[in-house]
Each structure stands twice: as structure tokens, then as C-alpha cells.
Amino acid sequence: MELQSSFISAVEFYKYRRKHSIAALYLVCLGLLIATQTSKAEEVYQCDNHTQTCISESEFGEQNDQQLFNIPSPLPTWAEIPQCRGKILLNRPFGFLSDGPSNYSLDTKCAWIVQSSVPNATISLQLIEFATECSWDHLYVYDGDSVFSSLLAVYSGLTIYGNYKVEELNQITSTSNTILLYFYSDLAYNMSGFNISYSINSCPFNEEGKRCSGHGVCIGTTCTCDADFYGHSCQYAVCPNNCSKHGVCNMETHSCVCDEGWSGLDCNQTRDRGFWTSVWEFNGTRDERLARTQSSGSVWKGILWVVGGHGLDLKLPLTMAFNISGNDWSRVETNGLFIPTLRHGHSTLIHEGVLYMYGGVTHDGSVSSQLWSLDLSTKEWILVAPSKNKECHHRLCGPVATTGHTAVLVKDKMYVIFGYNPIYGYLNILQEYSIDSRQWNVVSSSGALVQGSYGHSSVWDPLTKRIYVYGGYQSESSSAYGLTDALHSYDPALRVWRVHPSSGSYRYLHSAIMSGGLMLVYGGNTHNETAISNGAKCYSSDFIAYDTVCDTWFKLNQPAATSVGGDLSRYGHLAASFDLNDSDEYHQPLLPYGMLIFGGFDGRLKSDVLVYIVGICTSLATKEQCLTAMPGVKCVWNKAAKKCEPLASVSKEGYEKCPESPNSQTEWSSSASAIGYAINSTLQCGSISSCPTCLHTTFNCVWCGHNCQYAKCKEGLTHTKAIPSLEHCQVADANSCRLLHSCSACHTEPHCHWEPDARCYSYVRKKVDVKEDQVCDAACSLRTNCRNCTQGPCLWCSNQNRCVDKNAYIPSFPYGLCTEWTTHENKCRDLDFPQLEDGGSSGQRNDPACGWCDDGSNRGTGTCMPGGFSGPVTNVLNFRTELVCPSQQWFFTSCPPCQCNGHSTCIEGTQKCNQPCLHLTEGPHCETCTSGYFGNPVNGGTCSPCQCSGHGTQCHPLTGRCFCTTKGVVGDHCERCDLANHYSPGLLTVSSHANTNSGVPANWTVLPTCYYDLQLDFQFTFNLSKKEDRHIKQINFRNVPLKPDLDLEFSVQCSTLAKLNISVRSAKVYILFNYNCTTFKSRFQRNEYHFGSEENTTFYVYVYDFRSPIQITVSFSQHPKLELQQFFITFSACFISLLMMAAILWKIKQKYDMYRRRQRLFVEMEQMASRPFSHVLVELQVPPNFPRRAPVPNNRCTSVESRSQGVTVVGTQSGSMNQHIIETSLCNNVTPAPSSSSSHSSAVTSNAVRRRRRFRPSPIALEPCVDQKAAVLSLLIRLPNGTLPYTPPGQSGLAIASTLVSLGSYSSRKNNISESREMPRSLPKAKTPPTLSQLA
């Protein structure tokens, strides 16, 4: 048992660590020897250095095949591990297979066949590690030797990696003697891949390599478990975790007896908080055919009625019933004139004892619009024919075929929500069916613009009277797709959609039920596009809830698989609520007893039944526990009674319904935690791009013209006022055209139009002439073969023979049953297998669906047929074939030894073909045509000569498309000119083209060719360096001179070696022949040729015999001679004109500047005149020790000088009553009279001057203008006294001066000037000279 564990660890060691050392092999062998010596002392292991294997020998020295195990080679090639290369046969009793030592390659196909030579053998596969791109890269496991056998599993995504695993026992068992594993990856992403071990006729073992999980004894192929374990592989403990110390282990019943209030297999779940359990697990009886996914059902009278489902390729019974109280299944035998076929992706609901089933995908892959009813009493099926609705004005009138939709019952109306239609894509419509009147209607709803989806969930809430729709798979454009976490609600009474906070958890094909004010969501596929998935899983076991009252998302606790007794992760399952109470008026359980989970998919089909039993609100003692525990129902706090109760009414007063904070937690460990964007309304509003949606949210969004904001419009936006109602939204912002991503869907709306850029526009945004009946290209689902499918925006699935939209791969193949697909025409292949005679035996090795039937000629010819390892099959895609091939001529995992494709024979004793090959073929296996021929010589095919109309000798070896050697000649056979690039047709004689090596047959007299017409007086440069120019060897030019009185100048320059010919038609002779083209210039005289006449001369230029890349510059010109007199006259006239214009502009600028100065003066005068009137009281006082002005002699200044003496500016100190007077004189040339004490007087005068300089005038008023940018500043000034030492009698001697100044450059001093030690600041700069005003 420990031996296999060592091998598995070795595989993991070498793949993920890649320690390539030869010493590691010996260490592994030594470890095996030590590990097995205690149990099998008689066996001796040795390492074979040549084969890199460990061999166990018996005492006689013979090799024992049962103990021969492959060890992963320490070499980088991993030679001993069967890796992903073609088809590999594995027939040893134990071994490994892997995709390789590192990440698997893109666009990979490979297969392994595990086969036992012992009849009725059991083959077991054990996943050791598995990680591929979810939903795109798959490993298919078939119960047989071909892909036409039954599917056992389809693995994809992160299934088991490290400590994470989807299933407790990742093991597959088959009894068909053969298992085929086929792996396919696309071109997008690659991951680490997988490691798988296999064993034949062995007991099951776990990922650690222990048989019977180490808890039992292997007898034959069956595990006999120890007393305290059970299960197919003894993987389950009878009393897990010792009953978690909340119960005792009863060995008689093989279960835990839990203490009161506890539940679960390990007694680790509290009953009053809600708990999980498994009530039924598939017991291995395959007759029941219970395992299924994407089925539908409802509970009625204690029975879960299950209809349909996806069985991969198994034929399932249509209707099954599960008795909840009896815990058993039964097949429902139905009757009726017509009975529906098996389908999946449909919807069901029960109304008054009648089950209604609508839509879905039938067994032939078509999407149905049928509505069936099943009377649960009589078990009779009836196909319900809809009544004609005369009031239907919508272009889509129900019923519309759909799958992946949901159906909700409200009173007597069934609402079919969204889904996928192969013609219209993801449906944005809501269909309404009246059960009483049998009428269908496509509802014209209002409110938020809702994007249609596939695989979403929807529930009816009887408390809020709304339908809640969550999650799903959506289209983002005509070729893009993605998951959504959006939550919307629909009011059937008002027909209005509303947006609720997103959950932050993306998923599709999940389940949801409504439980007393809580929407319980379970499981699903949460993997978004790989680039943005952030580790989301393919198979989820998330258990989340939405509080319809508090508008908040919560994550609920979920137990471990050991506590439930089953694997929890899955998608595509069925969920139904069952109750022990009366239902409400809409036949929905108001307070359910629990939730049933049945079936699903986690790589394999599920058949177990999980049950979640809701908790009890009254057991929650405190308000915090009551509002945050979320025991499966909505609990509210009764303020008066101070107790916790289940929610019975939304509007009932006296209850506290929501916690104070969505993140509040209690000391109770099972409390729910808030998730989603409930607290980030700004982000939620910012993600909305339509006006109606913005106005119909629950998180206070407002529409601000062109974007959605939270609460109010931000400053700086174009529209700062919020739009109050839907009527004010623009028409372009209020329609759903941009949500329609297919032409057919776009044309269902009268105001929408599909444009060539693959987008749907509204008429408001784009003016178009729209006809009533607009024609779209054929829908992808209507295209029947690979070529016409890949010519449109479609995806072709080869094994399903189906064409689907590029954005609809997931809705079309949610379980990966498309084993190979393409969007490129060059990868198409014919699926008519009997006609695959041109594929070759080597091609079938990569295709797991094909084998090779050799014709026995030993030349490599035969037929490719659909089949498996044992031979061809007779049923392909439901078509009967009559294919027979002798077993000795059938090749599936290998090819016949001689591979010459029928064009040669092999050298005796070797696999090499005799050379040269026959039939115009070449290559090591005569697999290609020789040069100048095309075709597919594989498997006896023929080759044909290239037909290039004389403009080439080479063509594509398969398609025959010619590689034209003349520039401007295009077409598959070089048969036409490239008119779009200005190459026009003409005729060229053989003699003029004899040396161009163009491949013209000798008996041709003329050869069509193409010319580039050169215009006169232009220089043309032709750069022949692109990839498509690599075959060009010649280019032709043509020119017709039009001016009869001017000579023609010609020049040409070639960057590499080339030949040049020049000829004229009129003369039919060469002007230049076979000239080496480097740089050539010539002048053609007008008197020698006919220019501009009826018989005008046409010049032909041929440049040939060159190899790309090359650059050719060529020109024809007819320029007149330059006349100096005319040139100088023109130049002088232009120069004088420019000078005059400059002078005029200068005068205009001066006039404008004078106008601006006058305008500024007027403005300043108006501002000064508009200042307010006030008064200022000025107290004049001579400061102490202020120097007196000495008398000025009369003879020192004249009367004119006295009158012209400067004014004295009187300043006031702000905040003080002291004033100072500074006198400045304009009579600067006055000299003081001589004095005996001149030195003393000079000192006093100098000191006085210095003290005067300390004083600066201060304003008595600063009056700001209205604009606060300018102000009127007022000063007191002292008038001159003339020759008198004092002011003349009758005059004050003072005046007020005002000026306009700029604000900001002046601040008053805060200290008295006599006490300040700082130099005072200068006055503000005046804008105009001060004006004087005499005091009265």
C-alpha cells in the first residue's frame, strides 16, 4: 500500500520541482527497498540503468510483471512517463500518465488508452493533481476504447491541487477492460496540467497512494473496511472527528449520536443555526440512471418531482420522484398521446397539482419553445398549445424558444425570465404565460435596463412582492462574454425593474430559493474569463444569502464534506424548498423547513441529495445575534418583547430588522459576514451607464446628464442638476439597443439598427435609412458546415457538427462536450469520415476519433475511418455506417511501417522511401508536390501544374494560388489587374518581354499585363519590401505626355540590381533595352515625338529581373523654362505688397492701443467716481524734536520757484493719533546762508535729513472697489507756503490727494512710526497721477 504512495510522490517531485539528477533515481529505488522490506522481505528490488526502471525479482531471479513499475525518468524528457503526444497505449498493471513536466502546450490534442488483457478486469484512475483552464481545456474519460464510448467524466479547471480538492475521492472505475483518456486545450491559456495514476484489477486508493485509503483490506478488487470506516474506498470515518465532542460514537449503528442541539455526521453543526446533511447517496447501482445535471423540479405533497437533465451521453429516464420522508427514489411511469423527449436547461413549476415544463435543449441539440403539462395525479403528459394573442405588437411574441432560463409562478401567471436563443442570442425579454387563458405575452417593462443572461437564478419573494434575478452568463459584445454578479428585481404589479447591490461573487448555473426574507444561493460555476478570474473555481460550494429587507448580501458558514457525508462543490444542480407549514397565496413556502439540493456536475455527474435545514430565530437570545446570525431565515428583533422572531411582514412596526453595521459580528461563531458592495454605493453608481437604470436603484443614485453619481451631482460636471424622473432621460440613454449583441436581436426592437461594426445603435445616435424588413446574415446556428460557419462571427464544433456564436460557447457546451472547435477556415476538416482518404495515416494519430485502415499495398495508402483501438465503429453522429477493416490492417495508436503515400516504395528493411518520388511529388514520404505544381499527394493524391497566366511559375502547394511575379497583377491565377491600387490593363508583345523570365509559353503571341499610370510632374517611389512582395520580379509603368510645346523629362532610380526597358507604342521600337537600372535620366524632344495630339505617344517602362526588397523611384515631367524678368517683377510686386500690408497693420495696432488706453482711463475714472463718501478726522500735531525748517532767503528762489516748490505729504499712522509731516522741496539748488556755526548747522541738517527719511506717508483712507482688485487711496498733503515761513492767513495749507491703486501690495503698519525700528513699507503703486482737492 505504501509502494504506490512512493511512486505518486515521485511524479509530483519531478513534475513540479524538476530535479533532473541521475542520483535521484537511485535514491527513489533505495527508498522503495527500505519501504517494502518489512512487508515483503523475500523480494529484492534493483535498478536497471538501461531501462530506468525498478524491477522486483523473485527468489528464482525471474522478473515479476506484477511488481514492474515505471518510475519518472530524472532526464528532462520524462521518457518513462507517457506524456501528451498523439495516442499512447498503456497495458501494464500500474503506471502513470501526465501532460508533461511543465505547463501543457496550447492547441494540444492527445490520448491514452489503458487496456487490460485480462477479461472482466477493473481499471481505476486516480487524480493526483489536476489544473487546467476552466470550461475550455478538458480531459475526457471514456468507458471504452474510442470517443464514441460512454463518457465517465469530463474534468476541467482546478479539481485537485495542493490542499484543495473538489471530491474527497478523485477516482474513476471502469469494468469494460479499456479506458480512453483524451485531452484537448485551446489557443488561449495553459496551466500546470495533470498527473494521473492508473491500476488494473486493484482496489481503490486515495491520492496518497494508499489502497482502501489505509483503512481496510483489499480482497480481490473490493475493500473490506475497518470497523470504524466505510465507503467504496473506506474513505469515510464512521464517527468523524470523534463526534467533535458533541456526541458519542455508536458502533452498532455506525454513526454518531449527537447531543441535543447538535447535528451532522460529526456532530459539529448547531441545529438552531441551520445545518447540512446528506439524505441519499448514489449506491453504485447504475440501473437507476439518477446521476444528472441541469435538471429541473419542484416539491409537491412531500415529493420532489425531477424532470429531464443532462446525462452527458447517457439515456436517462425523463421523470423521477424522491420521497422526502421515505428517503427513496422511484421512476415515474407517465402516459399520454405525446410524451416529451429528454431535455436539459428547461424550467418546471407546479400549479394546482399540474407540473409545467417549458423550453430547454432536446436530445438532438435544438432549443425548444414547447410548453408541456404533467398531471401529477394521472401521470399524463399534454402538449399545451398556446392561444393566439391578437394584442401582441412586439416583434418577438411568445413563446420564444429558450434554454438556461428560469420560470417563476405568481398567482396564475408563469414568468419566463431571460435565457439563450440560438437565433437571437442572450434574451433580454420577460415572457408571461397565463395558465388560465393560455396566452403568451412578451412583457413591455420599464425601469432599469436589464441585460439578459444564461444560467441565472430567480425567486419570488411573497414579503416584498418582487421577483429577484441574480447572476448568470452574459454577452458583452458580439464576440465577448462573461459572468455577472448583478442582482435585479421585478415588480409584476407595476412591471418595473430595479437594480440592487451586487454580491461581488460572480457565478452561473447555481441555485436559489426564498426562505422567509432571505434568498439562499448555493454553488455554481464561479470562474470568469481566465484573465480576470482571480482564482475563482469551476465548481463552487459557496453558500450566500441576500437580505431583501436590508438590501445586503451575506456569506453563510458551510460545513466540511466530512460533516455532511458528500462532496459539496458543484454546478448545474437542482434546488427546491420544502416546508411543513401552509403556503402563501402564491403557492410558495413562506417559512420553509429546508432546501433540497440534487444532482449537478463536478467533472462527473452527481446523484446525491443534500438537505439544508433552516434554524430557529427564537433561539437567538440577544439583538446582535438575532440580526446577524442568519440561520437560513430572516430574523427580526421584537422591541417590546425583547426577543427574536422570524420575519412575518415587511411593514409591521415595533421590530428592528437590520443590524447597525453590515460588518457587525457577534461572539457567536456561526454569524454571517457581509459581502458585496452594499457599503460602496459610489462605486456601484459609477458603474451604471444608462439613465433609466441609474434612476431605479436601491442605493440612491442620480443621473447627471451623461453619467451616474451617488446622492448628488459633483461639481465640475456638465450637468450639476440631477435628472428627477425617467421622462427627462434622453431617448438614446433610455433604450436597450446597446444591450443587444446580435443582428437578429437588434432588429426585434423598432428603434434599433445593426451596423457593420457589429453593434446595435439607436436611431437617435445614428441617422440611417431603415427599411421595415432588415436582412441579417444567416445566424450561426443555421450554418451547416465548417467553412460557411467560420466565414462569419461563429465557432465550429467538429465532433458535435454544430455552429454557434462566438459569445455562446458556454451556453452551447456548458459541460465541455465540444471536444474540438475552431474559428478559422484553414483549420476546418471534413467530418464525413468515410471520405477522409486524403488525411494520411500520420494525421489520424492526433485525432482520437479516427483510425487508419491500410489497403495492404505497403506503399502507405489506405482509408481514415471513425473508430477506436479495436476497430472502426458503425454509428457516428447518429448515422449508421458500414465500415469494415481487417484487424491486421487496422492502425489506431501507430502507423504502417512504410509511409510513401502511394508514390514510392520503401527500401527493403527500412522505413525510408526510394527517391526520387513518382507522380511529381517530393519529400521524405513523398508528401508534397514538386515546384510548379500543386495538390495534396498524401494517401495517393495527385499534383497539377500551376496556372498563373504567364505571370508566375510558382503557386501554393495545396491550394494552387499563384505567386504573381508582376506587380499589380492579382488573382488566384494572376488573371486580373489591381484596379484598386491604380494598375490598369494593357498588352505587351512577346518580343519586348522575351528576357523577363516570366514563364510565357513559346507559342504565345501576346501576353496580358498591367501598368501603373504615372502622372506628369510627380515623383513616385515604389517600396517592394513587404512580405507579399517577396515573389515580385517585374513592375510596369505607363505615361502619356499632354503638353505639346514642352519636352518630356524622364528619370528612374533602382536601389538594387535590375533590368530596364523603355518603349513607345507609336514607333513600336525600344528606346532602351536590357539596360542595367541604377540611375537613369533622359530628355525626349517634342519635335521627335507626338505630344498632346490625337496620335499621342505612350511611353512604357519595364523594370524586371530584380529581387525584393527593392525601392524604385520614377518620374515623368514637362516643366517650362524659368524667365528671369518675369520672376523679378513678380518677386518685387509681392515684396512691396507685403510691406504695405505690414504698415497698414502697424497703424491699426497703434489705433487699437490708443483706444485701449482711453478705455482703461474711462474705467478708472468711473471707479474713482463710484467710491463711497465718508469723512476722516485728522488731528495735526508736530511730533516732539521734529526739526523745524529753516527760513529760506528770498533771494534764493524766485517767485516762480516758490510757487513751484513741492508739496509736503502728511501721513497718518494707523492705530495712533500721532501724525508726521515730511516736506520735500523742488528748490534743490538752495544753499543755506553762511554761519559761524556752520559745522554745527551742517550736522543738525544732516541729522534732520536722516530723520526725515525715516518717515513715509501713510494713507488716511483706502477704499476698495467693487471687484476687490483696486482701491482709491487718499493722502493729506501740505501746500507750499511760498516765501513765507507759515501758511498765509485764510488758508488751511492742506489738501487731499487721491489715486487708484492695486490691492494686495499694501498693508498698514501696526506699530507707531516713532517706535518702529524697521523701514516703513512704500505706498502702493499708483495707476494714475494723484488729483488734488482743496479742503473747504
From TrEMBL:
Residues 1311-1336 are annotated as: Disordered. The keyword ATP-binding does not apply. Residues 256-267 form the EGF-like domain. CDD domains: CUB, EGF_Lam. It is a single-pass membrane protein. Keywords: Disulfide bond, EGF-like domain, Glycoprotein, Kelch repeat, Laminin EGF-like domain, Membrane, Repeat, Signal, Transmembrane, Transmembrane helix. Pfam families: Beta-prop_ATRN-LZTR1 (PF24981), CUB (PF00431), EGF_laminin (PF00053), EGF_LMN_ATRN (PF24973), EGF_Teneurin (PF23106), GBD_ATRN (PF24972), PSI (PF01437). The keyword tRNA processing does not apply. It is found in: Membrane. GO terms for biological process: animal organ morphogenesis; tissue development. Its main location: membrane. The chain crosses the membrane at residues 1127-1148. One of its GO terms (cellular component) is membrane. PANTHER family: DISTRACTED, ISOFORM B, LEUCINE-ZIPPER-LIKE TRANSCRIPTIONAL REGULATOR 1. This is EGF-like domain-containing protein. It comes from Daphnia pulex.
